[in-house]
Amino acid sequence: MALEEDIKAVEEEISKTKYNKATEGHLGRLKAKLSRLREEVQKKASQKTGGEGFAVKKSGDASVVLLGYPSVGKSTLLNSLTGTKSAVAAYEFTTLDVVPGAMEYKGATIQILDVPGVLKGAASGRGRGKEVLAVVRNADLVLIILDAFQLNHYDVLLEELFASGVRVNSRPAEVNIRKKPRGGISISSTVDAGLDDDTIKSIMGEYRIHNANVTIREKISIDQLIDAILGNRKYIPGIVVINKIDLADEYTLRKCKEKFPDALLISADKKTHIEELRELLYKRLGFIRIYLKPQGKPADMDEPLIVRFSSDIGDICDKLHRDFRNRFRYAHVWGDSAKHKGQRVGLDHLLYDNDILTIILRK
Question: Is the pLDDT of residue 91 over 50?
């Protein structure tokens, strides 16, 4: 329990320390220490359990995890989105394992995963929180589900995701850290970094990094610097939905809209705004349509291949057949990604929505 006690002590000291320029370095060291201790706890837990968690095989074109407190309506929402029969009951912890379902929409197959509810302390091992959050790390999108009468759960869920190394609707900071054998810490920035050199050095010292070149290209926070040092954070998009609006009065609905203006208000039970949620999932997952054209024949414009935005020719080969990448010779592309009609391209060519593609393989 020593590590857990150390974590609690550091968390308490952080909460009591008011942030200002005078305390910035101290807070930086505390946050770095807290992050390091949490990493140690997770490593020990993985060694103890053999690294085992929920066995979830990814399928379809993308995967989405339904995350929320127990009894928030995740299982009912899974049923409404996919038709999968996940156990539903009016008491907590109905779902004890991961229940997968498949949602077909606009030609895309989206895997929806209903996981056990999480509570405060999940990232530290409460319940099966670590296993649940590990599933989130491997997903393409997290759907955060709130009860219309328990909006305060949102902050707790974000805290647990953050503690487990998941960053929702964010991106890695433009920080490059290159270790070197000697010479101390050299810091260069193209903008006001937001942190002074002493704070940066003290945070890096917590991770025993005493010799490195650090390049910063945007204003960053202490947490962003720690994330850059660790390099193991997971950045995924997220959507917030507020469930049970069929039970809410006008005052409660107004409060939901005021606190979460970008959230989608739904009733999983009554299937209210479920079609809007399907469309939102499709858009946020960033699907594009690629039309395949056999060599010497017209393109099949009726059944496009559905892939994620930023897919290249190599990704298409992998999706079509496991041998296509090895047998690849070249490809021809028509559309917005091509410089001219029928441009000859290689495996690393990025495709755009509505591109037409011909792949030429070795016999």
Answer: no
